[in-house]
Amino acid sequence: MNFFQIIDQLAAVDPDVLDRFDSRRAVFNSLGSVAKRTALAATPLFVGALFQKAYAGTKSTPAEVLNYALTLELLEADYYRLFLAAGTLPAGADTAAITQIKKHEDAHVALLTSAIRAAGGTPVTGSPTAGVRFKPSAFPATYAGQLQVAQVLEDAGVRAYKGRAAELVGTTLLTTALQIHSVEARHAAHIRRMRGQQPWVSNGDDLAAHPVYSSGVTATPSTTVTTAGGTFGIPAYTAPSPAENNIVQVGLPITTAFGTTAPNYPYSPANAAAAFDEYLQAAEVLDASRAGGLLA
Amino acid sequence: MSDNLQPLYTPIKRRSFFTYAGATALVLAGCSKDSDPTTSTPGTISLGAGDVGVLNYAYALEQLEAAFYAQVVKTPAADFLAGELAYFTQIAAHEAIHRDFLKAAITKEKVGSLLQDLTPIFTTINFSSRNSVLTAAKLFEDLGVAAYNGAGILLKSQAYLTVAGQIASVEARHAALVRDLLTPGSFAADDQIDANGLDKQMTPTDVIAAAQSFITQQLDASLVGK
C-alpha cells in the first residue's frame, strides 16, 4: 500500500481531501519519518480508520469505541452467567476460575457504562432477556463445548481491543482500554490451559481454523451497529486484518529478519506467530462467523 | 513530533502539501524531538525521548526478559514439573523475538538511537530452584504487562501503538501462565486485577526503578515519551 500515492490520487479528484481528516496533526504525527511510513504500509488498520473518519458519515467518537467494547463485555458477562448456571462446571478450581473471570467481565460492563455516560454517550444495555446478550440457542450442551466458546470469546476480545486502541490515542481512555485488554489475555491464557491448549495462540491449536483466528470476512458490513435499541458507529471495513499465524510484523519477516544462523536463528514460524497477537477490526469481530453470531 | 512543528507546515498550501510529503517527512524526521540516548547524569544511560524512548524502554525490558529465560532454558531447575521446560523454551523464543524486533524497529526509526546491550544481574535468582525461577518470572511478566499498559499513551505513532499491543497481550498470556504455575488459579488474581477489572499500569520511571536491581547499567527513563 503506497499511502502517499493514495493521498495524491485523492487530492487530484478531491481538493478538500486534507480538510476531511479531522486532525492534520494526527496525520503528521504518524507520518513523521520514512520508517513510520514503512510501518504504516503494513497497517491497514490505521489507514482504514483515517479514511473512515474522513469519508464516512459516522465519525467514531470515544463513546462509540467504548460502546463497541461494552457490547463485547456484555456478551461475555452474559455468557459466563449461562456457563455458571449450566451446572456442568466441576466444583473447585474450574468453578473458581470462571467465577473470577465473570467478576472481571461484570466490572468491565460497569466501568465502560459509566465511562460512556461520562463521555456524553448513551451506553448499550443488556440483561438475561433483553438487549445485548448471548444467543441461548448457541449455548453448547457440553462442558467441553462451553469452554471452547469461552476461549473463542476471550481471544476475540483480545483481538478486538487491539483493533481499536489506536482510535483512543491522546485520551486517558486508551490506558483503561489497555488495562482491560491485558486482563482478557490473562483470561484467554487460563481458559486455553483448561482446554489442554497452549496459553498463547498457537499454530497447533485445535481451533486454529476457527474464524476468530483467521482473517477477513466475506460480507459487506455496515458502519453502524444497532443493538439493544441503541446505535453506534464502527470504522468501515477496508482490508482484512492479519490472521493469527501471521509471521510478518511492520514489514519484517520475523522468522529470518534478525538472523539465520543456528542455534538461535531462524525463529520457527510457530514462535514467530505466537510472539505477536493480531488485531481484528470491528466489522470482523461483529461478523456472524465470530462474536456477531453469538449475539441474541 | 510536537507543537514546535506547526510552523513547518502551516505556510505550505494545504492542497499541495502531500505532493511534497515525501520530502517533508524527511525534514520532519530531522526535526524530531526524539533525542539520542545520552549520558544525562554521570554513569546513567537515558532511554531517550519521544517514541524512540518508548521503544528503547520496551527494548530494555525485553532484553532483560530474554536473558532471563535464556538462562532458565540453559540451566533448567531440576524440580520443574512435566511440561514446564517446554513452556519456558517457547517463552524464551517469544522474548528473544520481541527483543530482536524492537532492536530492528528502533534502528529503522532513528539510526544511532539504539539502547546499548544491557548486562543483566541475576544473582538473586536461584536458577536451580523452580520456585525461585517462577517467582522471578512472575515479577518480570507482571511488570512487563504494567509497563506496556502504561506506555501506550506515551506513543505518538498509531502503528507502534498497535504493535505494542500485539506484544503486550502475549506478555499477559505469559504472566497468566507463570502465575498459574506458581499458584494455580492466580492468573488474574485480586492482587493484580483491581475492583474495576483493570490490570496494572505503571510509568516508565516506576518500572525502571523496579527492574534496576537486575540491570548493571543505570537507566534513566525520565524522558521516555516526552
TrEMBL record, chain A:
<protein>
    <submittedName>
        <fullName>Ferritin-like domain-containing protein</fullName>
    </submittedName>
</protein>
<dbReference type="InterPro" id="IPR009078">
    <property type="entry name" value="Ferritin-like_SF"/>
</dbReference>
<dbReference type="Pfam" id="PF13668">
    <property type="entry name" value="Ferritin_2"/>
</dbReference>
TrEMBL record, chain B:
<protein>
    <submittedName>
        <fullName>Ferritin-like domain-containing protein</fullName>
    </submittedName>
</protein>
<dbReference type="InterPro" id="IPR009078">
    <property type="entry name" value="Ferritin-like_SF"/>
</dbReference>
<dbReference type="Pfam" id="PF13668">
    <property type="entry name" value="Ferritin_2"/>
</dbReference>
